[in-house]
Amino acid sequence: MSLRYVARRLSNQKILVSSNPRNAVRTLNVPCQQQCRSVASTANAERVLFPGSLNSKFTNTLEFLRPATQEAIPTFRVMNQYGEVLDKEMGVDTTDEEALSYYQSMVLLSVMDLIMFEAQRQGRLSFYMVSAGEEAIAIGSASALSPSDVLFCQYRETGVYLQRGFTLDQFMNQLFANKKDLGVGRNMPVHYGSADLNIHTISSPLATQIPHAAGAAYALKLQNMQQPDASPRIAVCYFGEGAASEGDFHGALNIAATRQVPAIFICRNNGFAISTPTSDQYRGDGIASRGAGYGIETLRVDGNDIFAVRKATKEARRIALEDGGKPVLIEMMAYRVGHHSTSDDSYAYRQRVEVEDWKRRDNPITRLRKWLEGRGIWDEDKERKLRSRARKEVLAAFDKAEKIEKPAIRHAFEDVYEELTEEQKSHINELRDILERYPNEYDTTQYEGGVESLARLPEKKV
User: What sequence ranges are listed for the domain Dehydrogenase E1 component (predicted)?
Assistant: First the structure.
């Protein structure tokens, strides 16, 4: 095959072929994946041209890549654990008023976690999960996103909802599964969702939200192309490092990379997946190292530094919208101070002194407070008033939500099919018969409409 023939075939790929046979094919701004699809390797080629390879140089040295000898991926931070900004020129990219509002939200989240954890221990709540040690990741990242961006959370992103405008009443209504719960009692506590805030409802199965986010990002990519006058949107997905051990993680990142979708994948690496420490989860360099393997732009961030979280998320969003869209992976490093959930006793698999050391030595709330104090805009008196006010607000919402009756029983059958199936109708009749025959065993007075709500089920969804 002549060089001129190759040049003609590849002219639409912007590949230039030298007239000198000794020179390898050189490219002009074309990804190697595209170059290599139809170009055979020549005898004296210096780089790999196989369809499945990257633009790799040939070598006659037999040397395996040994990850243990490589330097770990660095962790980006803006301020140290003493609240001191490391690069004065770069600064924090946040006004004092904004930083103060983020701090107040982090404290409110912390206070709510403490109260609701105790409420579960008192038997007033069936389940709860705290965000202790990870407040800056949720609130910091959410503050850097557009309200129109579509979010997919796991179950430790309460701060994301709080930052987006989810109210204390909405939190409590969902936790108590009363009739004002947006999900009308169909989900377990801490599984929030809000169509108004563009946040998909949290799902219990691990990592299922990651491929959902990749698919949504592809839809947003098409939408951004079809509506050039509208503000572009991206999908953002939150998950823990334990979820990154699931197949859904790998499938999602691969499709996101090959489809080049506008998405940010935020991994909260807090050191433990339920009762499994990271030392038992993976051997490689955290989760960030996997991003490079999928050809995704990647960054590792100090999750205890809310300024670093904000800067990283803001820049990631800019990158995600470049050239029509591309995925970004951010690994946020943290330490899970609390138990995995109210169903877990973390002291069974880690030392209490280790947890207390992290609480005392470094955590996101303390670090931001030190920065605020250094600026002269915070002190002990303001701290005390803030925590007192936050506690009163949480308890007021708690007391109100706990007294509201449960959703109507009919909601258990609605919104499954457009029309009630014959099987559903038989289930409804059977349930109603049991409830009416055994009123002492089944108290339906706490549910809106009681057993009679089953008689008001529509035949067809309006």
Answer: 104-408
Q: CA–CA separation, 248 vs 355, rounded Å?
A: 31
Burial code (b: 16+ CB inside 10 Å, e: under 16) for 406-430 equals bbbbbbbbeeeeeebeeebeeebee
Residues 426-451: what's their mean pLDDT?
A: 94
Catalytic residue among 204, 231, 388, 426: 204
Establish whether 341 is a catalytic residue: yes
Count of beta carbons in the 10 Å neighbourhood of residue 288: 24
Q: How many residues does the chain have?
A: 462
Query: Of 46, 98, 118, 419, which is the active-site residue?
Result: 118
At a CB cut-off of 8 Å and minimum separation 6, what does 172 contact?
397, 398, 400, 401, 402
- Mean of the per-residue pLDDT values of the chain: 90
Question: Is 200 one of the catalytic residues?
Answer: no
194 close to 235: Cβ distance less than 8 angstroms: no
Give the start-to-end residue ranges of the domains of the chain. Answer: 1-61, 96-403, 409-456
Per-residue pLDDT at 6 exceeds 70? no
Q: In terms of pLDDT, which residue wins out, 28 or 370?
A: 370
Torsions phi, psi of 285, nearest 5?
-85, 75
Structure tokens belonging to residue 234? 């991206």
- CATH topology for 96-403 is Rossmann fold (3.40.50)
Q: Which of 341, 346, 411, 453 is catalytic?
A: 341
Residue 11 appears among annotated catalytic residues = no
Question: Smallest Cα–Cα separation from 443: which of 411, 414, 413, 405?
Answer: 405
Contact between residue 435 and residue 392 where contact means Cβ atoms under 8 Å apart: no
Q: Is 343 part of the annotated catalytic residue set?
A: no
Supply φ then ψ for residue 142, to 5 degrees: -65, -35
- From the candidates 339, 340, 346, 411, give the one annotated as an active-site residue: 340
180: left (phi over 0), alpha (psi -120 to 50) or beta: alpha
How many helical (H) and strand (E) elements, i.e. helices and strands, does the chain have? 15, 10
